Amino acid sequence: MTNQALERHGDPGRFKLGLYSSSNQNLLEKHMTGLRSSLRLIFLLQSTLLFGQGATRANQIPALCKVESLPSDIQNRLKKEYSCWKIQEPADLSQRAHERWESEKPQECPGIAVGHFESAKTPSYAVLLVPMGHADGGYRFLVFSQKAGQPAYEPRLVEKLDQNGAANYFIHRTRISKFFDEPSRKKFQAHTVDGILLVDSAENEYGVEVYFWSGGRYRHEPIDY
Questions:
Q1: Mean pLDDT for each consecutive 10-residue tract of the chain (225 residues)?
Q2: Contact 130, 136 (CB under 8 A)
Q3: CA-CA distance, 130 to 92, in Å (whole number)?
Q4: pTM confidence score
């Protein structure tokens, strides 16, 4: 074909290339639109899942703080001897204490700790009680344990507070080995598996004490935590 003919009719190759490019561009735009829609859907599903898990955890914690979560013998003792007291719950904590408690792993009820505090064979139950109607007005820190060969749980009053400030406190189980090496275990006679942390989150008096069974009683030592 002559140059004049090409000029008159146009280059067939160029015409086809233009159609091909335009078609590809449309396909690419459709593909990107579908991809963006898929990503939005994935994000929404993940957000819903995470929110649901958070709501589930938030609902589980108050249930763990119910007195019904404890053995029936302990429930009866609390209802009989501490009828005007209740277990410390997340809603009772001050803002600083709540933030500090939320950082604990695993996250458990701030008023209950379960562990082998006195015996490696049977668990003990530590509870932090606060007054009903005025949860900041004081606390009673008790540990319930079974005596050898007996089904009943006996309470021990470990610590108490009779003034405002209870909202700054919570308890948490910990491994003794986390704070005591072998020489320290021998020095303090701390031979049990677990101890109990009593955390004070007051603004000017932040401190943590570890309580442990030693020589037939509970002792405590300040720790960096």
A1: 46 46 60 61 49 44 85 96 96 95 90 96 96 96 91 95 97 95 92 96 86 96 88
A2: yes
A3: 9
A4: 0.73
